[in-house]
Amino acid sequence: MKRALSPLSDNVFDLAIIGGGILGAGVARDAAMRGLSVALVEKGDFAGGTSSRSTKLIHGGLRYLEQFSLGLVAESCRERSILLDMAPHLVTPLSFLLPAYAGDPRSLAMLRLGTTLYDWITPRRHAATPRHRTLSAAETATAEPCLPSEHLHGSVLFYDCQMDDARLCLETILDACRHGAVCRNYVEVTGFRRSWDRIEALQVVDVLQGDSFDVRARCYVNATGPWIERVSQLSSGNAARIALSPTKGVHLVIPRINHEHGIYFQSRRDRRMIFLLPWGDDSLLGTTDTRFDKVADKVRPEMEDVEYLLDQLRSLAPSHAIQVDDVLTSFAGVRALIHSKRNPSRRSREEQIVASGDNLLAVAGGKYTTFRAISDQVVRRVYRMLGQRAGKCRTAEAGLPNLRPAASGALLSQSPKVCESDIAFACSEEMGVTVEDVMRRRTRLALSRHGGVEVASPVSHIMAKSLGWTDGTREAYLAQYLRGWKQNKPWE
Ligand SMILES: Cc1cc2nc3c(=O)[nH]c(=O)nc-3n(C[C@H](O)[C@H](O)[C@H](O)COP(=O)(O)OP(=O)(O)OC[C@H]3O[C@@H](n4cnc5c(N)ncnc54)[C@H](O)[C@@H]3O)c2cc1C
């Protein structure tokens, strides 16, 4: 796949989207499938922002029931069923145990009530996510031997889904391209050309080569997640804007503790709910939820985040608890939550879509799980702005094809399974441009125990061959990746 930028500058599109996270990707695919001509520009790599840093769950969000967000939970449960059918290679069912111990903030009876409501609220039950059931203390300890049986009252077993967030975003972009959209990574919006209340063009710069040019369209969508206020400021109109109260969330990749289920446990320290998930041969532990006031590019896991999560794990499973040095890696992301004075964990996960001027929409908030439904709403608003009748949204029925060929060539890692052909394919067909793109988002190598130089180096050599890099370019991209990888290990 050649990274030609002239299709961006040579056309006037119906719609130009800023931001290649899951919301931008979802809007691009939906609009292109309905027949609009679409451009999308992303300043880094697709899914390089929040959309590769989530807990990687497609879920109803059991805990939002406590906040009476019944509409959000019902919509999320409906979308969970749709996404299971739409991308079965990326969204897979997962069983969860919700244990209750003496002294926990929520009793077993409360957990049963919550999961009953969760089942009841699901509009279209998918066979892969059956209803919950209650397990006795003995059954719980057998199902997940890492859970101490002392003071255990039992657990609730329920179903949600796990996903590959970075690939779901990328494959949504690639499918948008197959429907005619022109989507490019490493193209940053630096300004807007306006005439009165109308945007005439986006001023963009090719981040890799430094060239500047304009992208023209009849309508624009700002889907830049935690950057949305900054990008809105560039448009300099006096119209309505989205205001955010962002929070930071950190996850740790740790040696495998849980057996086969996800464990959703209660913090006795602050009542928060924490996930311990199966993650290949390892486990994923998260997340934190703390105020974040810096630029989203600066988000990093800090030692206090790592210690907070390890403390929670110690109080859940003291005999299986692990030390800082055992942690394999970590990652941090920023939630673009709509402005609120509530404490971080209680801020709304609802989305907001705001029109400004004649032809600019901004969209932020929501959950990964609801991206398809949010995209549908945005595209309908785009049609209204264009003064046209919207065609039918077809994204629920049209599956995302799994186009990666069977793996071949040298085996780079067994878990996750990555072969030489996956790297070459990421470069030739999936717009992988840097070592970071391929290690972190085309594959999950960076989020595994194989994220270090011993695998990154052969990956960089395969990329050099595919993309025709000089030695200097290869070394620079490898060094850039390893710097980022080190920043995710604040304990070293
Ligand atoms: C810790 C954490 C855990 C989460 N867990 C879950 C979960 O398990 N399930 C779930 O459903 N949701 C979850 N979420 C929420 C979910 O991840 C987000 O709702 C979703 O990823 C937001 O996508 P987005 O497209 O709005 O933003 P982003 O993914 O951040 O995309 C915005 C993009 O805009 C680009 N951009 C910014 N400025 C410019 C510019 N000037 N020019 C061009 N491009 C630009 C950025 O580079 C970025 O890629 C979680 C969020 C966090 C932080």
SSE layout and pairings?
Layout: H1 6-9, E1 12-18, H2 22-33, E2 38-41, E3 57-58, H3 70-86, E4 91-101, H4 108-121, E5 133-135, H5 137-143, E6 152-163, H6 165-178, E7 182-184, E8 187-195, E9 198-206, E10 212-222, H7 228-235, E11 247-255, E12 262-266, E13 273-279, E14 282-286, E15 290-291, H8 303-316, E16 329-335, E17 351-356, E18 360-365, H9 371-386, E19 411-413, E20 418-419, H10 420-429, H11 435-442, H12 453-467, H13 471-487
Parallel strand pairs: 1-2, 1-10, 2-7, 4-12, 10-18
Antiparallel strand pairs: 3-6, 4-6, 5-6, 8-9, 9-10, 11-14, 11-15, 11-16, 12-13, 13-14, 17-18, 19-20
Helix pairs in contact: 2-6, 2-9, 10-12, 12-13
The structure holds flavin-adenine dinucleotide.
Task: Describe, in short, the structure shown.
The chain is α+β, with helices and mostly antiparallel strands and 492 residues long. The protein has helices at 6-9, 22-33, 70-86, 108-121, 137-143, 165-178, 228-235, 303-316, 371-386, 420-429, 435-442, 453-467, 471-487; strands at residues 12-18, 38-41, 57-58, 91-101, 133-135, 152-163, 182-184, 187-195, 198-206, 212-222, 247-255, 262-266, 273-279, 282-286, 290-291, 329-335, 351-356, 360-365, 411-413, 418-419. Flavin-adenine dinucleotide binds next to helix 2, strand 8 and strand 16.
